[in-house]
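request received
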Amino acid sequence: MKYRAPKGTRDILPAEAAVWSHIEALFRHAAARYGYGEIRTPAFEDVQLFIRSIGSDTDIVSKEMYDFVDKGGRRISLKPEGTAPVVRAFIQNNLQAVNPLTKLFYISPMFRYDRPQAGRYRQFHQLGVEAIGSDDPLLDMEVIMLAISFLRAIGLKHTTLLLNSVACGNCRPRYVEALKDFLAKSHDDLCEDCRRRYTDNPLRLLDCKNPACKALLQKSPQISAYICGPCREHFDKVRKGLDSLGIAYTVDPSMVRGLDYYTRTAFEITHDGLGAQSSIAGGGRYDRLIKECGGPDLTGMGFAAGLERLLLALEAEATMPARRIPCSAYLIALGERARINTLSYLYKLRDAGLHVEYDYLGRSLKAQMRAADRLSCRFAVIIGDDELERGTASIKDLAQGSQTEVQLTALVDYLLQ
RNA sequence: GUGGGUGUAGCUCAAUCGGUUAGAGCGCUGGACUGUGGCUCCAGAGGUUGCGGGUUCAAUUCCCGUCACUCACCCCA
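response:
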């Protein structure tokens, strides 16, 4: 009988969990600076929420949903992404009545039934934000800046910002038609995947990696020639805003995000040290989603970053922060009498806020000293029969190698020094 | 869902053409130092060689199956 973590999931052990916490804390700080409040939504939702919002033709919905029927006959899915649940919560709790502009952030596990590979898991973790209630392009810019600011804070350097406008509900269909018209005559020359995309999701044709398809698409119509005046104006304002701050970006007309709800601004941040899954963060504007989910006619903008991929990127840059929390003291009580008589000091020191270690394995003094060293303890506090007689403790400074003896009554103050 | 690669100690890896008791480094435990860490030296614990079958006098090694991991496609964080 042998149990393993389910495929595509893994255990985060203390050394790694410390790094996770650190990155999460930096994200919380970034979100706080920008005025975003935390929201925690359930791990699962009515499956229809995702089908309606993400789009039934997307891969996420058609083959990656972790869905099931619960004992009450409800069709449920573990959340594959964060925006739809936040929008649902926004509507359900009438947040537009509380504040005309709602700014939220979340840190949450997500679930997709994919084949795992480098940087891709069935349970993964996203850090994201949503800003709902304004269609100001400067809000798009704020969300992008928050993402960039956060990535800088964790120390990532080799990132690329890709930017595109995926147009709106009015002008995108015109472009899709133009694209299909253009490809209609060479339909048979497209790769198998692209022939499927041609009917299911024509925009996805744009980022096909097949050389033959790429060649065909060389002269394909560009979305920039088809987007409507307001969309063009919106995109220009986002770009000008980023320009004014000297933020480097690449306009990538082939960048099409895999969720149907995006309109206008779409962006992605990539890192080249990750293998095939190079995207570490992505997001965009959604102008129809909230209304389609039954809410008010409000627009939103958001992004999410993948925590596992951030860690891979940090590893690739060899700047993974070492998170070793040093220990204040290792309390070594030698013999039964000392163990009983020093217990109160162990807990007094801990109550005073110090990290104090103690042996429960019956190890020798030498072994305890070695343990103290491994834990990077500042002091070893030794209390044996000799010390008990004198009412003292021997305190060795493990960095200096020096040792002094202090009265037990002064022990806490000495270590707090 | 499709394809490739890899499964040996807690971790990273050896093991000649198929050959006898499967090794090393790191880590862990103990000792050298009867109450003092790091450095050094010595010793010890730790293995169903993923699992099942086949070929063979003999399988960690070759073959088949299976499971797991991994990388890639698709797609995305």
